[in-house]
Design a protein that fits this description.
seven-stranded mixed sheet; Rossmann fold; single chain; binds nicotinamide-adenine-dinucleotide; binds zinc ion; alpha/beta; 2 domains; about 375 residues; Dehydroquinate synthase-like, alpha domain
Length: about 375
């Protein structure tokens, strides 16, 4: 089956994720199916990389279907998630005459999803929005309803929970994505397997080539299964009280790498890839996971061209300092998500910092020898 639909189950905020090739041309049909009447004004938000590739197709298809449509193009990259750009989009929305019945379409990666979602959450106290993801990583941001922009003092500090009306994922758009961005997306796909589904992990291991080639049948299945894992977790913990923390596998290490490298040398997917490898090494060291777990995880990550070795220039002590600040550690003990086996993780409290440091020092040794 070329096209598939996954339902995210959140009572009256439930919504479908449509996945498959060629879906950009079907956006009007999906809007109709979601009950969006042709009288409602649509506002397409995108970035300057995505605009030349797909904006015309989306706008002209919508206009041909009878929808009044306006658009707004912002700069590309994480920089777009800042207050000045938020204001710029708000101004464009007001000037385009959007009202409370209007709908925002976020056409782009996770940055546009987060920014567009936050604009939608706050424009006239909230309007509907639809995500049209164009990166693999955005399979992650399209589930969960977290929308946010950054403050100079920290990432995602200004935000809301705002669920989309629907997600329309055209897998053809992934073909124009730079290879490094594709790999970064696979890091989150692999994470979704590792936290809850060994069959999914085995399936990824068995189809590396087809997946890397972005074969639409395989990539659609990967996106669906990745979204399904996240949707299951989010459905049980929509507002992040506890369980949702398992989605942070590899992220405490990863966020520290990103921060120490000024968000420049490693992208998010690469940083959490190294982090997932370290979490697995630590789990083995603590005898929480069987020997061989870390090897299998790292081999899979590497097969998707993701890094697993220590980021050379960093000092393990500096990383530990940032991890300590980042998480709610108590009196010298850290709380981390660690694998118990492939497809199963646990939130482990009271981890000795010295052990975490040792694992990082060993990883650095290994890298330099
Ligand atoms: N809300 C959530 O739950 C959640 C979850 C994960 C990540 N995020 C957020 O997502 C963001 C990262 O998302 P991302 O990796 O998609 O980044 P992104 O949106 O910046 O996209 C990456 C790059 O690819 C370009 N691009 C996008 N689609 C393209 C295409 N089809 N062809 C060619 N180029 C294309 C973009 O212009 C950008 O330069 C971060 O800000 C992160 O905080 C949010
Ligand atoms: Zn992540």
């Amino acid at each position: 089956m070329e096209q598939r639909t996954l339902q995210v189950d959140l009572a009256e905020r439930s919504y479908p994720i449509h996945i498959g090739p060629g879906l950009l041309k079907e956006v009007p049909d999906f809007l109709q199916a979601a009950g969006v009447e042709r009288s409602r004004k649509l506002f397409v938000l995108t970035d300057e990389n995505v605009a030349p590739l797909y904006l015309d197709t989306v706008c002209s298809t919508l206009a041909a279907a009878g929808y009044p449509v306006a658009s707004c193009v912002v700069e590309a990259g994480e920089q777009a998630k800042r207050l000045a750009v938020y204001e710029q989009v708000m101004t464009a929305a007001i000037e385009a005459g959007l009202d409370r019945k209007s709908l925002l379409l976020a056409l782009g990666g996770g940055v546009i999803g987060d920014l567009g979602g936050f604009v939608a959450a706050t424009y006239m106290r909230g309007i509907a929005f639809v995500q049209v993801p164009t990166t693999l990583l955005a399979h992650d941001s399209s589930v969960g309803g977290k929308v946010a922009i950054n403050h100079p003092l920290g990432k995602n500090l200004i935000g809301a929970f705002h669920q989309p009306l629907a997600v329309i994922y055209d897998t053809d758009t992934l073909h124009s994505l730079p290879k490094r961005e594709v790999s970064a997306g696979f890091a989150e796909v692999i994470k979704h397997g590792l936290i809850s589904d060994e069959n999914f992990v085995t399936w990824l291991e068995n189809h590396v080539d087809r997946l890397k080639a972005l074969d639409s049948l395989f990539i659609s299945e990967a996106i669906e299964r990745g979204c399904a894992v996240k949707a299951r977790v989010v459905a049980q913990d929509e507002t992040e009280q506890g369980l949702r923390a398992i989605l942070n596998l590899g992220h405490t290490f990863g966020h520290a790498f990103e921060a120490l490298l000024d968000y420049a040398k490693l992208n998010h997917g690469e940083a959490i890839s190294i982090g997932m490898g370290l979490a697995a090494e630590l789990a083995e060291r603590m005898e929480l996971a069987p020997n061989g777990t870390a090897r299998r995880i790292k081999t899979l990550l590497q097969s998707f061209d993701l890094p697993v070795s220590w980021p050379g220039s960093l000092s393990p002590r500096d990383v530990l300092d940032v991890m300590r600040r980042d998480k709610k550690s108590v009196a010298g003990k850290l709380v981390l998500v660690l694998p118990r086996a492939i497809g199963r993780v646990e939130i482990v409290k009271n981890i000795e910092e010295s052990l975490v440091l040792q694992v990082m020092q060993d990883a650095r040794e290994e890298q330099t020898t």
